[in-house]
Amino acid sequence: MGTTLLNPGRIGRAVLGATDYWKGFHELFFYSLRRLGALGRPPVRQVLFKQIYFTGIEALGAVTVIAALSGIVVTTQVTSLVGQDIALTAKIMLWTVVRELGPLLSAIAIIARSSSATASELASMKIRGEIDHLRFMGIAPGDYLLVPRVAGITLSVVAVTFYFQMTAIVMGYAFAAATGSLPFVKSITGVISTLSMIEVLVSLLKAFVFGLVISITSCYYGLRATGTVTAIPRAATGAVMRNLLTVFLLDGIISYVFFV
Amino acid sequence: MIRFERVTKGPIRNLSFDLGRGGTAKILFDSEDRKNILFGLLAGRQRPEAGKIFFFGEDLFAHAENERLALFRRIGVVPADGGLISNLKAWENLLLPAWYHHGLTAEQAEQPVAEIFEQLEAGEAGLKRRMGELPGQLSLYERRVVALARAMLMEPDILIYDFTFAGLERDAAQRLMNLTGEFHGRKAGRVSLYLCPDDAVSARLAADSTITLTQ
Fold first, then answer.
1. Rounded to whole angstroms, how far apart are CA atoms A117 and A213?
2. Average pLDDT for A199-220
3. How many angstroms separate the Cα of A258 from the Cα of each of A56, A108, A119, A154, A211?
4. Does ipTM exceed 0.85?
5. For the purposes of burial, counting CB atoms within 10 Å of the CB of B26, is it exposed (0-12), middle (13-18) or buried (19 or more)?
6. Which residues of B touch A121 (CB under 8 A)?
7. Is B50 helix (H, G, I), strand (E, B) or coil?
């Protein structure tokens, strides 16, 4: 085990892989930024709307369940710890649900659904030569495939995060009210009065950064696929793993910068 | 309009030809590998080991990617497998470049596409009904019809046909052949380049010049 971990070849490959990833990530990020105007073309907007539908709207069912259960778990734990202290419960709900769980669990749900799907879709298009077919039509593959996916996934992550936070808080307090632990209206009012603009903005900033990372990483893994069909599952798993690691790392960094 | 100057790539050695305005040419191959190499060169996907390729008098490989894309807007390519985008329905595929570059809507495209289908159907109903299918559910003939109609909607100055009549039933191949011939004459100066297998179907294709690329 130790020998494997300290194998210079393995370490070298990991460093080269990470370097390639960051180089590719920056290229795709700046390309998307430069070519954002491509969204003005109706076929590109169609891809954008499809992406928002798939990543945002179709994910709402699963996100509702995860958010409701998370809210219920947090309120149950908090009320068992602090009793009927509405102000403290509201603060803890904000710290956990708005600051951390909302952005993080929404990102994880979207990584599970859309990151693997996007990476494998683009990988299979690349392997089938469809990227070249777009060039034959005079269409820049980056404008048609990359820009609407980056914009669509990023917007969806922000919207889904906001929806997650609202659902978790409402469902958590609804459960607490149903079990007689806390009064519903007073608790919700307590959360609203405790909530500051900075809390909301930082959590949405997190969601925005996660959305960018998830979309660009998924496109990067999909578009770099070459060779045979075995590259498709490799692209999907590569994108999911890299996204999970990066999202957790960024979550820690953003929380440290704004809340410590 | 298309000029090859002593182009060398793999088994293709020192290929030179000049296809001027309004011309048609067919290049016959005895091997699909050789054809794929030439198609890769024409598509700008592979660089020649030596020599130059010109479209409209401009060196294909002297340009950056976006300038090459601008050249391809004037060139229609009909790939052998249709070259359709797998997650778009046949109708969306057909409309994609014209919608993307010229903002052509489905309503505006309906008439010209109906005319193309009318010419092709000749007793074979159902082409229109298949337009709601994804490419994976279409036959090779249907995929090529979509690719052909897609290229035609762009009214290109150059059309490149990649084994468009190969592997089809005799009648279907003939209908496509007639359509491409008729389309060629519809715009003054249009150039048609056919890449064909060296077989009996290709022998029926009329062209101003023939180049044979065999061993």
1. 15
2. 94
3. 27, 22, 32, 21, 19
4. yes
5. buried
6. 87
7. strand
| Average pLDDT estimate for A158-182 | 93
Count each helix (H run) and each strand (E run) in chain B, helices first.
Answer: 7, 9
**Interchain contact, B100 vs A144, CB within 8 Å:** yes
Q: Is the pLDDT confidence value at A1 over 70?
A: no
Identify any residues that bridge with B77 across adjacent strands, giving them in sequence order: B160
Which chain A residues contact residue B88 at CB under 8 A? none
A56's tokens: 């945002």
Strands B50-55 and B58-59, sheet pairing = antiparallel
Tracing tokens 């369940």 back to the chain, one arrives at: A65
pLDDT value at residue B164: 93
In the three-class reduction of DSSP (H, G, I as helix; E, B as strand; rest coil), residue A169 is classed as helix
The mean pLDDT value for A174-183 works out to: 90
**CB interface of A with B, residues 29-48, below 8 Å:** 41-44
Lowest mean pLDDT among A189-198, B3-12, B48-57, B81-90: A189-198
How many Cα atoms sit within 13 Å of A218 on the Cβ side? 35
Neighbours of B135 (CB within 10 A): 22
